[in-house]
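Same chain as my last thread, 631 residues:
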Amino acid sequence: MKSVIVGTAGHIDHGKTSLVKALTGIDADRLEEEKRRGITIDIGFAHLELPAPKGEKLRLGFVDVPGHERFVRNMLAGVGGIDLVLLVIAADEGIKPQTREHFDICRLLSVKRGITVLNKSDAVDADTLEVVRLEVEDFLRGSFLDPARSPIIAVSSLTGAGLEALRDALANVAGEVPARNSTALARLPIDRVFTMKGFGTVVTGTLVSGTISKEEELEVFPTGKRLRVRGVQVHGAAADQAIAGQRTALNLAGASTDDLARGMMLAPPNTFQASARLDVSLSLLPSAKPLKDRARVHFHAYTMETVAEVHLYGTKQIAAGGEGYAQLRLAEPTLLLPGDRFILRQFSPVVTIGGGVVLDAAPLSRSKNVQTFLEVIGGGTPEKILETRIARRGQHGLPLSQATLETGWRREFILQELGGALRQGTVQRIADTLLSAASFAQLLSTMSAVVAEFHKNNPLVAGISKEELRDRTQVSAEVFAAALDQAIHEKKLDVAGEVVHLPGRGVAMKDEEAESKQTIEQAFLSAGLKVPSLREVLAGLKVDKVRAQKIVTLLLREKALVKISDELVFHQSVLADLRHKIAALKSTTPKIDVARFKDMTGVSRKYAIPLLEYLDRERVTKRLGDERVIL
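reply #2:
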């Protein structure tokens, strides 16, 4: 059964609630104050099933909104998720201020379908009704409710006149509404929170995308709280799941009414991120005052509202009726995605001045060419949008999880849309990170430049360590490994152990440096196990202390010298000889203690203990108490 959400709009006392009751039999006014005062204060709900023209059934969910100017903020909480609108105009009053404001709001929210209802037709004669119809036709001409393609139906909620024609029109228009995407990731903006005896905490809302099932876990945005769905109702009836486009009630475990409020959003956990900064395309109504840079406004999207500061891109002011790009900085974070519509109301006096569409809910700080970026993602294909988002991440790339967070698209859809680019090589996938081919090539150039600079500044060092090179590029381990492999394949870089260097690049030494290197190595080789201190060896060299230290570092990297403790350095061939001698003792002397080791090597305890610990690390010996077992 196809589900369609119908919203009412119109001036106070033009009969929106009575019309919904006449159509559905349900009184959408639920508050005592509403019944006492005879006006709608908050949003109300009703539902109706109709046969569609093609034989299937339609399930219509009605969102009835208040018409009083004081309650426009409540009206805005109700119309964010509607598929079509009933613009209700009383025949005995015609077009009034909130008729115009509600109509503007529907246009700004990009509602594409609707029906205009001339209510209270019984209160006027035929000539007056025709005059009102002509006035309304002129008002609607050129809009989404243009009389040339959208019906205008006169009805009387009191007598029932015209209701059958309205039901037929509803079936026809609702049948044209495209189904919402039930395979997308779920999002439910909360419009009511209450406690039901025997059930606990219940929230309601219009499921704008995806599917929510019983026992599913959801995350509350922006608080991050996790909840379990204990039960689901759709249009007042128990169900196993709710799908996009349905009025949905969820019985939630793990939360009280204090944890939830209108304006919050429910979505799958570990998927999205609330944001207080939104890059948007916005437009002003012709009746609005010019909007200045850094102006404060009231911001409404779905069921949430907050205060926002407008930071315009490329201009200091947007004229009445004009359009532009801006970053909205919200007083409170919220979960919105590209394509979500919003309404702006003047800070004071509070009137509707414009609205627009979210283009980027994850803007980068210090981003360049923002307007060009927004132009592309505002009108591009999914493939182009993804390629543009990947390109702006440069050599760091865009992880698939981040791509979902930025777009709201599932991983499978993202990879499907990028199939051509991946096959052609314009986009590369490295593990779960996406990079543009140009950014990957730039990363290779950056790595080569870093290594070349390191050689220039460190002529006595064989190359830069892999760890330091990755720190300089600040990319993920997977991206770094792939880039290094490619650089080696292209002969731009070479690797010796953990050291990266330019191909064919050795250590460039002057004569006195080469001589000092030989002197140091020979000093440790000839000393055997009774090595001198480094300070003694370096003191007799012809080079300064800094260069001498670099030469020692080079010898250690080349493994000509081996440091076995903070103070002791030995020549590698001396240690190799020691390992061989100890291993040879195994057949005759399976164990050795410190005293025996000292006698055998002729070294003092100062050397013996670090050497035995070195043999333990090399798995030549294993310590058991005061002795070592020769392995």
